[in-house]
Amino acid sequence: MRRGIIGAVVMALALLGLGARPAAAEGASVVNVANLSPTRTAVFIFSPAMGRVVQVQILHPAGGGARPSFYLLDGLLPGVDQSTWTTATDSERFFLGKNVNVVLPVGGIASYYTDWQNVDARFGNYKWETFLTRELPPIIDGQFGGNGSNAIGGLSMGGNSAYILAARNPYLYRAVAGYSACPDTAMSLPAMLFSIARHGADPGNMWGAIGGPGWGAHDPAQMIERLRGKALYLSSGSGIPGPHELELKPQLAENIFTGGPVETMVLACVASFDARARGAGIPIHVAYLPVGTHSWGYWQDALHDSWPMVAGAIGA
Predict the structure, then answer these.
(1) Do β-strands 101-105 and 175-179 pair in parallel, antiparallel, or remain unpaired?
(2) Dist. CA 231–CA 22, nearest whole Å
(3) 85, 170, 181, 299: most buried, per Cβ within 10 A?
(4) Assigned domain for 41 exists
(5) Measured distance between the N- and C-terminal CA atoms of the chain, rounded to whole angstroms
(6) Is pTM, for the whole model, over 0.70?
């Protein structure tokens, strides 16, 4: 009888995301590996949850040995053949020589890196949470040197998702970083609906009826206690053009006229989440920048700024 009670308690804790981590979904497997350089590897993994092959690229040390992993998520429009972190920032050079796997999923346009309730006519069968939290980590740890000490971060949509995934799977991550991210689903709801619909998908297919229980179950602000004990980082600019707007880039006008107002809205959300965390007695490091738009130059800066905190939390 005692054994049955203990088993029931362990199962309940696992279902709540507070106990032992779940096993990998059956059948997740590596189908191809391409060594792009001595410190960058492309891994192609069959995901049973999504019923297709997903590419993940890993930045890693040139040598062997076990090391922590930093799962780094893209934004609303991710790269097609590789993560935009490697094409729009100095991330590959920045992590060179650091004892960490930087795990970069490829794809997932407007997915919020979550499990969609319904198959969408535009996006198909999105099951990103299952892939990122159940299928992928055992492969990273079992075949690519991961030691089970993990952090997760991302920019904009990916930053929202990093906080959502950490709140829903608190056993898995020791640190969470969001760059120009709004980890308050209720506050970011209009922007989320617009971003999904703009790319031809049905927002109701993601978490069910808009504003319903499925949405609340993916709101870090409502699950903030699950983030207690983790190293937490958020950053936001003010929306005012800054030094990166002095750089002559093709997207300069977009950064100023679109990225400025977007970052202003992000700032309000970041400040609200900051106040909520501190009100609950949960330490959080928030980088409030006096200038800065919703653009890559500032996300690169924030990645650099957050790294010492993330590295300390995972032992990198």
Answers:
(1) unpaired
(2) 23
(3) 181
(4) yes
(5) 44
(6) yes
